[in-house]
């Protein structure tokens, strides 16, 4: 799983010559949501031994019947997200956000040029943010007025409460 500061956090903190962050807040939010979804789907490798008596000596690798409904639903959601993104983008997103791999490791494994994984990561996070309904800037209807929970005075409440 990711360490204290992930590749996404480092890229969000880095600035270009104009002072703009490489990743915006909507990218970071999308990465955090994906990380939580992958964790809920129980797809990240275990780093510790499990002494659960039901799993000791079991030859099953964790079928759909063995996992919780929440993990099953999370896996279905991940499948839908993966189908809507280009394969390279999804692979980098899963490696970085789900498995906590660094960008250099991703580039080495895929035999990509240096600094290419961060561009693919940004493209993937932009598309993922769009799929999740996250925008770069919050925007809403400007013509709506503020609403309250009670639009008019109820008839049982007196007008003059002195």
Feature tags:
162 residues; 0% strand
Describe, in short, the structure shown:
With 162 residues, the protein is mainly α. It has helices at residues 7-13, 25-40, 69-84, 87-98, 103-110, 116-132.
Describe it for me?
By secondary structure, this protein is mainly alpha-helical. The longest helix has 17 residues. The termini are far apart. The mean pLDDT is 80.
N-to-C order of helices and strands: HHHHHH
State the helicity in percent bands: 40-55%
Beta content: under 5%
Biggest β-sheet: count, sense, barrel?
Answer: none
First and last CA, distance: 62 Å
* Mean pLDDT across residues: 80
Shape: extended
Q: Which regions are unreliable across 5 or more consecutive residues at pLDDT < 50?
A: none
Topology of this structure?
Layout lengths: L6 H7 L11 H16 L28 H16 L2 H12 L4 H8 L5 H17 L30
Helix pairs in contact: 2-3, 2-4, 2-6, 4-6
